[in-house]
Design goal:
- This protein is an alpha+beta fold and 485 residues long.
- The chain has 3 domains: 288 residues, no CATH class; 114 residues, no CATH class; 57 residues, Arc Repressor Mutant, subunit A, CATH 1.10.10.
- Helix content is 40%, strand content 21%.
- Helix 7 packs across helix 10 and helix 15 packs across helix 16.
- The chain is elongated and about 95 Å long.
- It starts with a strand and ends in an 8-residue tail after the last helix.
- The structure holds zinc ion.
- Zinc ion binds next to loops.
Length: 485
């Protein structure tokens, strides 16, 4: 009997706000341990939380971008649990009345784009961070840093809509792009700013009822999610084959050893004794706030990628690469307007991305050095075959490192592009005289030899000749007669 995997994801997005979710402590990363704390996030008696409007606004924007229904009045709840790194011993989250419900994230897959449906998005606070065990003389100790306790999180829960690990990876890639696009989070998984748990179960193909699921925690990279889910599907398959029952459990994935370990048998929702948070009023998102946020949403990445394909005639692949970051899209559009879209996309996808990567520049750094009008001038000259191919890459590097337009750069480096018949004819004749063999071959009908002869002229010109002109001159000199076909 063929089994199919059913996977659902729970993603935690750390919101890049200035302050924490329920107090005014800085939410920054990397401060000295336990320096960003106060009575509220340390859970001291009598301290009262106040919700952070910027974090709620981030949830609102994410919910609107994903087409969720936004609840006008949602409710904060206490999730009771002993967290060594959460001094209140409960987490403020949302339970039965979350802020956003429904919606879907469109994801580009090899077979085309597909929307993966969501169950909900809610607002909550993060826990602190434990470090254990550490050696301290001959003792092993654990330490807790409460700087992260109370930092705003958005929890996004998908429907069990994934059938294989690659879909999960594509979903996370698209989610990371979206939260960056909206300015909600940097989405860095290695910093823990985007975290993911996966629920995995198997069932006979075609059955609609779900099998017993396990939850994998601690997936801290996209590759880790793919590998962890793959390992769990294999484990469940094997267990079933040997007639074992799958137990509901929480597993930890150890990426270094590609191994799963049972952390605890799975708790149920009622174990947390959720109840409405008595210290906070209901969370109200009025229609005016919602409408304003909707109107202020930028063009979303999937809409924009489709438009790039349409308006600039670039292939879907290019639109995906360029659409990875908003500032890259902006730069591309500024350069491609009124230019050859595919040519602009080629140079940006290969050379701009390569150089920014090598030099550790952001796209904004690049755009300051090479503003769109400079790149446009360059592209126009490449397009008009004013700059021969081999020279173009060199000129491109000068553009990044120096000031001035293309003509100025060529002058400064004493490069004279040889595009005129008078410049090139002597070189062409010299090459023809020195290569009687290939000339005879060409005349004998071996057309490919022309490429060799063009190459020889290019060499003699130190890459400064325009190949199209050289080719025309060679053909004329070789008698103009077309070789017999
Ligand atoms: Zn605080």
């Amino acid at each position: 009997m063929a089994l199919e995997a059913v996977i659902g994801l729970e993603c935690h997005i750390q919101v890049a706000t200035r302050t924490k979710m329920f107090c005014g402590c800085p939410a920054e990363f990397g401060a000295a341990p336990n320096s960003n704390v106060c009575p509220v996030c340390l859970g001291l008696p009598g301290a009262l939380p106040v919700a952070n409007r910027a974090a709620v606004d981030a949830a609102l924007r994410l919910g609107l971008a994903l087409g969720c229904e936004i609840r006008e009045e949602s409710v904060f709840a206490r999730k009771n649990y002993f967290y060594p790194d959460m001094p209140k011993n409960y987490q403020i989250t949302q339970y039965d009345r979350p802020m956003c419900e429904g919606g879907a994230l469109p994801v580009a897959l090899a077979a085309g784009s597909r929307g993966f449906p969501l169950i909900r998005i809610h607002v909550e606070e993060d826990t602190g961070k434990s470090f254990h065990p550490e050696r301290h003389g001959d003792r092993r100790i654990s330490r807790v840093d409460f700087n992260r306790a109370g930092v705003p999180l958005l929890e996004l829960v998908t429907q069990p809509a994934f059938r294989d690990p690659a879909e999960c990876a594509a979903f996370l890639t698209a989610l990371r792009r979206l939260v960056r696009w909206l300015g909600i989070s940097d989405g860095e998984m290695e910093k823990g700013h985007l975290r993911c748990d996966a629920n995995v179960s198997l069932r006979p193909a075609g059955q609609s009822e779900l099998g017993t699921k396990t939850e994998i925690k601690n997936l801290n990279s996209i590759r880790g999610v793919e590998r962890g889910v793959t390992a769990e599907i294999a484990r469940q398959n094997l267990a079933r084959l040997s007639g074992e029952r799958i137990e509901q459990a929480t597993l930890l994935y150890d990426a270094d050893h590609d191994r799963l370990a049972v952390m605890r048998s799975k708790e149920h929702a009622h174990d947390y004794r959720y109840f409405p948070e008595p210290d906070l009023p209901r969370l109200r998102v009025e229609a005016a706030w919602r409408d304003e946020a909707r109107a202020a949403l930028p063009e979303l990445p999937w809409t924009r990628a489709a438009r790039l394909e349409r308006e600039y005639a670039v292939p879907a692949y290019d639109a995906q690469v360029l659409g990875e970051r908003r500032e890259l899209c902006d730069y591309f559009e500024d350069c491609a307007r009124g230019a050859d879209g595919k040519l602009a996309s080629n140079w940006i996808m290969t050379e701009v991305l390569r150089m920014t990567n090598e030099r550790g520049w952001s796209i904004d750094d690049w755009a300051r050095r090479v503003p769109p009008d400079r790149l446009r001038e360059f592209l126009a000259r490449v397009s008009a075959r004013d700059i021969p191919g081999p020279l173009a890459k060199q000129v491109f590097t000068w553009l990044a490192d120096e000031e001035g337009g293309v003509a100025e750069l060529l002058d400064r480096h004493r490069v004279r592009v040889q595009a005129s018949r008078d410049d090139l004819l002597p070189l062409v004749r010299e090459v023809l005289n020195q290569n009687p063999g290939p000339v005879a071959q060409y005349r004998g009908g071996k057309i490919a030899t022309l490429g060799f002869l063009v190459g020889q002229v290019m060499k003699k010109s130190a890459g400064q000749a325009v190949p199209q002109v050289v080719q025309d001159l060679l053909k004329a000199e070789l008698g103009g007669q077309r070789p017999p076909s």
